[in-house]
Amino acid sequence: MSEKVKPYKNSDLSKKEQVTKMFDNISKEYDGLNRVISFGIDVKWRNKVVNIVATQNPDYILDIATGTGDLAINLVKTKASKIVGLDISSGMLDVGRQKIAKKNLENTIEMILGDSENLPFDNDTFDAITVAFGVRNFENLEKGLSEILRVLKPNGIFVILETSVPTKTPFKQGYNIYTKGIMPIIGKLFSRDKAAYSYLSASASVFPYGEALNNILHKIGFINAEALPQTFGVATIYTATKK
Fold this sequence. Notes:
Elements: H1 15-38, H2 41-54, E1 60-64, H3 70-74, E2 82-87, H4 90-102, E3 109-113, E4 126-132, H5 141-151, E5 152-163, H6 171-190, H7 196-206, H8 211-220, E6 223-230, E7 235-241
Parallel strand pairs: 1-2, 1-4, 2-3, 4-5
Antiparallel strand pairs: 5-7, 6-7
Helix pairs in contact: 1-4, 6-7
């Protein structure tokens, strides 16, 4: 299991409470700064997630840790009749609702405040569930994944997009220099929350990826777990299904 990294070292709040506070703090700057830090490549990764989900012709989709709704909005391309975006940060959801309103997608996308480790849905509800850059923020990874399995329909697809660590030279060395040295500096220069981007870098470096995360998915009860590295391994798309 991954080491538990928290945003604020001198806080007595739980990881979940700290993550909520952090995303509330950076919600208004998150989209723009995220594009800068990722060089815009995160848009390409999300599009790949959408294409994978679309192959299943889902009618009802849940996007967990939806943040400002980027993936939820992109998932409209799947032709699903209903998409629910869930997040623990009301600040991020407020930004997302504004984006959805501008695109006149309120009838398709519903944004709700909720906890990924205690999902407010019945068993076997969703045809597809996605999480983009969110599972490493779960306080209890296995509990969150178990909840996702519970609300996913049999034969439904679960797709994760998450940061990972390149294993080949020179990409591994370049990744370490960028994430540990440059990315936190950019965050401190342009973010109201000076600890946020240091946390995002640190949490990515210790989170299980590749076969390690596949093994956790299988342990929880998912089947056919597969890891698809992206852009030299700096991110990975995971797919899995439910029996």
